[in-house]
Amino acid sequence: METISASSLIKSKDKVVSLQDYERVVVETDRFLIEDIRPILMGLYGEVGSIMAASKKYRRESKAYPAYKEAVEEEFGDALWYFSALCRRMGIELAEVFETASNKAITNIMSAHDNGVSAISQFDNFEKANRLDYALIDLACVAAQLLRAEKDSFNVRRELLDFARLYLKAVQATGLSFPKVVNENIIKTLGRFAVPDNDSLPDFDIKFPEEEQLPRCFEIHITQRESGQTYLRWNDVFIGSPLTDSIRDPDGYRFHDVFHLAYAAILHWSPTFRALIKHKRKSDPVFDEAQDGGRAVVVEEGLTAWLYSYSKGLDYFEGHDSVSFDALKTIQKFVQGYEVEKCPLKLWENAILHGYSVFREVKRNNGGVVIGDRENRTITYRPIGV
């Protein structure tokens, strides 16, 4: 069988990923110790509960919960991740468990559950709703039994088989495509945890003339005057407008342009920075309007302001080596429809942590030089005059 690389799998929205490939690449996203069984079991049980909670919410809110399909699909994917981690700790192959549980070859399992449903309407029919309820209750019961099972007991294997069988039944009752659940989960987990390969990351303006590209390397001087206003200089030219914190209790937001510079250097995206240096991609009217226009700038500024408010309670990420998955998913929602949505969440995490590291230096010294290197996707700080 052909071995598929992780970088190709992360772009595999339209490709059916085998469970063998899924199991092989998600190993690198498993941060638990191999002997850690209890947190894996608790995670599995919790994800099944999350599936039930999403279904309950849809029953209550119906059309007022338009994100139900994506939410329950994600929860099924997360449950699969924990189930894979559990099988790995038991020394059992994930594909073997599903094949044995269903008495079908894995290719037949995938095709049987690839129903291509694009919308969830199961709850319009009482009989279908009941079938889904019972499928989820049965799945929760076997997840609870796994919680009580001993690692080396015969019952564990039996419970694994029962879980796989009931999992497939619940996916089918929900009206989801099992291959799509697998694909979306691998894209999510690799995008969140796998260290990005710079050669496989998008470069959004590489095909545009140099004067329309974000600069490959840049040094931005940030200075604060006695008035409290901050100024930006690029190539000895002042850019943008002077900024203050614009809030009753000063909090350093006058230096927030650092974050736009971090996005530009690490994500290769910043409509705000493009506008400041007049490097909009005007040679392509579609990019000029849809990717570099006013709405894109507002999205970036809104995202930056929200993240800044969030960071205050975390001491501006001082001492942090990660960003909450929930926060990263909120960012993902913010930028839907814009080119930067192609960047994996791990790259967003890098941009945030490195950007805030430089920001704290700038804030501490009331200015400094921010150095962006797009080739290496880095942002660093240097004091003025050094």
**Roughly how many Å apart are the termini?**
56 Å
Binned, the helix content reads 40-55%
Q: What's the average pLDDT?
A: 87
The shape is: elongated
| Major beta-sheet overview | 5 strands, antiparallel
Number of extended strands = 5
- Tell me the series of helices and strands, N- to C-terminal: HHHHHHHHHEEEHHHHHHEE
Structure characterization notes:
- With 386 residues, the chain is of the alpha+beta class.
- It has 15 helices and five strands.
- A hairpin with a 5-residue loop joins strand 1 and strand 2.
- The radius of gyration is 24 Å and the shape is elongated.
- The protein has helices spanning 6-9, 19-26, 38-61, 68-90, 94-102, 106-112, 126-148, 154-174, 178-193, 257-267, 271-277, 285-290, 294-312, 325-334, 345-365; strands at residues 217-224, 230-234, 237-243, 367-373, 378-382.
- It folds into two domains: 6-194, no CATH class; 200-382, no CATH class.
- It starts with 5 loop residues before the first helix and ends with a strand.
- The model is unreliable at 1-6 and 116-126 (pLDDT under 50).
Give a summary of the structure in a few sentences:
By secondary structure, this protein is α+β, with helices and mostly antiparallel strands. The protein has helices at residues 6-9, 19-26, 38-61, 68-90, 94-102, 106-112, 126-148, 154-174, 178-193, 257-267, 271-277, 285-290, 294-312, 325-334, 345-365, and strands spanning 217-224, 230-234, 237-243, 367-373, 378-382. The N and C termini lie far apart (56 Å).
Sum up the structure in keywords:
5-stranded antiparallel sheet; 2 domains; 386 residues; alpha+beta
